[in-house]
Amino acid sequence: MKTNPDVLGCFWIPPHYHKLTSSGVDANTVKPYTTNTTDLQFRQNFQNHILPELRSKVTPYQDGRKFMRKSKTYGVGFSDIVNDALRQIYKGHKSHVLTQDQVVEVLKFVPDINVSYSDGIYFVWK
């Protein structure tokens, strides 16, 4: 029985797709940006109001830490997602986190990063 090796071909955008379109898709996205008005409104609200408020409340770590320690305060996987994002940021790549609490933790380590919101995911890069 012969099977197609590209099983997930219908789910992922081809690597060259971002070069063929002007819809705002870049090489790091899995799908084109949404045109849903509520998501666009939240994205604008996040950039204009929520992100500046988060940045003003964050106190950066002064002890020279590079990564988050495992803690009983946070759930399983919380520090793993933050540490994975920090590794990618230190390498100069774009990464993502899933909640605003994770954005706050990343901002404590690297306060001068760029943050954008799209479809429920917060993208962080330097």
What does this structure look like?
The protein has 126 residues and is an alpha+beta fold. The protein has one domain. The protein is built from four helices and three strands. The chain has helices spanning 17-20, 37-57, 78-91, 100-109, and strands at 95-97, 114-118, 121-125. It has a three-stranded antiparallel beta sheet with strand order 1-3-2. The termini are far apart. Mean pLDDT is 79; it is low at 6-10.
Helical region count?
A: 4
Question: What percent of residues are in strands?
Answer: 5-15%
Strand order of the largest sheet: 1-3-2
| Main sheet makeup | 3 strands, antiparallel
Helix/strand order, N-terminal first:
HHHEHEE
- What is the overall shape? globular
Based on CA atoms alone, the radius of gyration comes out at 17 Å
Poorly predicted ranges: 6-10
Average pLDDT over all residues: 79
Distance, first to last CA: 48 Å
Q: Helical amount among residues, as a percent range?
A: 25-40%
> Structural class, please?
alpha+beta
Report the strand count: 3
Write down the domain tally. Answer: 1
